[in-house]
Amino acid sequence: MLSTRVIACLDVHEGRTVKGINFVDLKDAGDPVEQANLYSKTGADEICFLDISATHEKRKTMFDVISKTAESCFVPLTVGGGVNNLEDFSQLLKCGADKVSVNTAAVSNPNIIRQSSDKFGNQCVVLAIDAIENKVMPCGYEVTTHGGRKRTNVDVLNWASQGVKNGAGEILLTSMNADGMKTGYNLHLTKIISENVSVPIIASGGAGNPRDMVDVVLKSGASAVLAASIFHFGIHSIFSVKKEMLKNGIHVRDCEN
Amino acid sequence: MKLIIIDYGSGNLRSVENAFLNSINENNLKCKIEVTNNLNTISNADYFVLPGVGSYPDCKKGMQSSVGLIDVLSEQVLYKKKKFLGICVGMQLMFDYSLEKSRTSGLGWLSGSFNKINTVGLDYLGRNFKVPHMGWNSLNLEYTNHPILKNISNKDQYYFVHSYFLKTNQTKQIIASTDYCHQIPAIVGKENYLGVQFHPEKSSLSGQKLISNWLKWNI
Question: Band of the pLDDT at A44, cuts 50, 70, 90?
Fold first, then answer.
């Protein structure tokens, strides 16, 4: 039986993680390579790096982070943030990323989804959607870009369906209203998208505790759950999330305490 | 011993190399890895890994564009009986054909074809089945005494990501399978050549176990 995935996300800025993990066994809390290894050892089913570096120059440090992580971290690795063209895609994959997520670039140049999936296969193309509530939109949510700062007047469900048609193999769906609030995922948004598109949906934004992860799987049909901050400070471990999921009848991959 | 990871322009070669290197070091094996499509080097090597990500037609085209590669590799595997492992699309290429995009013939070493996963019904939690079949899944072991399955149980999970699955009448070729909507062959093979539908290089400790088993396997 397929396990529901628990994905740990790390925000990386100029080669260093922004929110460090507060674990005692880390030598350097700002080193993304060390953190990725710790997450994979403690049961993360995938690691997601989000590069939030401001400039293209500084983004190059990310290649080094990915290469080093891929040397010792044998779980799938997704990298996103600032991916603008096929060249970015190709370089990230060469360094050892398994999937690349595209957000803003897909809105300004929708062809990038088709081009990248044609070239590298749809298994490595993740369409990241930052959704914000907007009652005027047919599905009730609008696509935003630039980390939620810019509105696009595009309906989220329409956008997701079009992305899948163009070859996206997976959708990383973030509720910008819930993000960082720790009040739970946006169940309504996740349900609409997961019931209406054919590819797996990763729920993101809003996880405050393991119960939130159970809810978004059972009530909204998410294929995977992603969280950043709740893991970083050691309040909830991947183990405690999986234990809660298992208790609620959700099949997960075994991990050690 | 020399292990060749065949480079025909397909993606994640680096990940495959990293994972095999780690397994070689952990087990203190005397084995060198080279990533190449050089026919001379291939002819003189001992073991072969054929990775593969992307679409079946593209991977087949990639192999064909290395002139002579398919012939040399087939000779080494089918006649010289050297150890071989196909991964994901690399595994799919060992069979007759795939219907991905259009009908594309494979190497025909094993009998069967690849058809799109047909998502009917709902899963145990009432969710729609999604394609690709993406994520960690356990194995149903058909030949528990095969050396590739040493110390592997149905508790081990492997990372899958694929949209097409093997249909074959030759059930003897199936060493392990997995369940996702259908029963999906996961480890297949015959004599000295094996293929895995999942990615052992991305399957954490369970993947390392399988890679070690393959490396230590005396044909």
Answer: very high
Dihedral in degrees, nearest 10, Cα atoms B123, B132, A98, B67: 150
Domain locations along chain A: 5-247
Q: List the domain range (segments joined by +) for residue B133.
A: 2-216
Q: Does the structure show a pLDDT above 60 at A46?
A: yes
User: Nearest CA of chain B to the CA of A159: how many Å?
Assistant: 18
pLDDT tens track for A169-192: 999 999 999 988 889 999 999 999
Check B136 against A253: CB less than 8 A apart: yes
| CA–CA distance, A140 with A189 (Å, rounded to integer) | 8
B179 in A contact zone (CB under 8 Å): yes
- Per-residue pLDDT of B30-46, as tens digits, reads 999 999 999 999 999 99
What's the CATH code, domain A5-247?
Answer: 3.20.20.70
Specify the pLDDT at position A25.
Answer: 60
Asked if B11 and A45 come within 8 Å (Cβ–Cβ), the reply is: no
Residue A254 has pLDDT above 90, yes or no: no
Number of domains in chain B: 1
Task: Report chain B's mean pLDDT, rounded to a whole number.
Answer: 96
β-bridge mates for residue B160, sequence order: B135
> Helix or strand or coil: residue B131?
coil
The one-letter amino acid code at B133 reads H
Q: What type of residue is A194? A: S
Chain A residues closer than 8 Å to B22 by CB = 72, 74
Substitution target in A125, A253, A254, A256 with the highest count of B β-carbons within 10 Å is A253
What is the CATH number for B126? 3.40.50.880
- What local confidence, expressed as pLDDT, does residue B59 receive? 93
ipTM for the complex? 0.94
Name the B residues in 24-53 with CB < 8 Å from any A CB.
53
**Angle, to 10 degrees, between the axis of helix A156-166 and the axis of helix A111-120?**
30
Query: Strand runs (DSSP E) across A60-117, as ranges?
Result: 77-80, 99-102
Nearest Cα residue to B55 out of B11, B120, B86, B94 = B11
